[in-house]
Amino acid sequence: MNRRRIAIGVSSVSGLAVVAAGAMSMFGAGGSANAVDLHAAPVAAVSDAAAATARAATAQADTVVTVASPAVPAQGKTPAAAAQNLSMHGSGQFDFGKRIGSLDLTMPSGALNEVMTPSTLYVRRAAAAATATAAAVPASAWSQTPTAQVSDGDLISGGATDPSLVFAMLGGVQSGVREVGQDTVRGVPVVHYQGTLDLGQAAAALAGPASAKSTNSADAVADKQALTNASQAFTTTKVPFDAYLDAQGRVRRFVATFAFMENTATKAIAQVTSATELYGFGTPVAVATPSVPPPAPKTAPKTAPKTAPKASESTPGHRATTPSAHPTSPTSSHK
């Protein structure tokens, strides 16, 4: 199967690169706590977590995407490349009912603002405050990219995984999920599950175009396309995951690992870990769809103005006494 090229950190949109840290180190360590018992089999508990979390309506979010690229040996005139870990951290808010969220993404090389919807990713370069060596830089204009046109459906390309896509992925949870044990996330007791999901199965579980008669159905169609793209972009449709659920069965932390071919010549496989942490359920969220400037109109090519013919050239019954200019002679209007 042909795999699509993936640009991590919306580099194709912003020109900014993702830079290094461990996915879980951004969130801090958990610990033992009062036991959480969801009274459900592990597969059922994880599968039901999508609906349980969506019922909270809103949440704050912290995200980290880390890319681990393997070392590449020298080939001919191409020098060897050392292994490297690159990552970006985001914080923001999501409205699960309206299916919209915003993230502020930070990295050593710059910062981005993003607004995520099922069908569109909006991105702009964030404003930068003045420093001792540089003047303040205003935020750039918003740009937009249809998620259907992103190679992985914007599952990780935007530098974060939209929580609503996390919920959609849970439709592909496979048998064999196991309970790892008790933990805490931001001081909240959780139960930790570990298993594998299938992107293709998750996509198949969503509604198709024939049912896109409402906003929710249209969102499901967008999610289906996103997961279909993702299933074709990575080296496998199988995705290992860790899910941390609270006593209400809601996702408090979700970590998934993807693999894609980074270099077709060397067959180098990069591992991408996407970690999403949700908290502050039910807090007010205000996110608006950005206004995107229309594309600049195309300028029509200039042509020579038509001028009235001279009487000596066009008066019926009279022969011209002086030669007229050739109609295709270059003029300033043709340059």
TrEMBL record:
Compositional bias segments (type: Low complexity): 299-312, 320-335
Transmembrane segments: none
Sorted UniProt keywords: Lipoprotein, Signal
InterPro entries with a match to the protein in the record: LolA/LolB/LppX
Region entry Disordered, spans: 289-335
Signal peptide: 1-35
Listed name of the protein: Lipoprotein
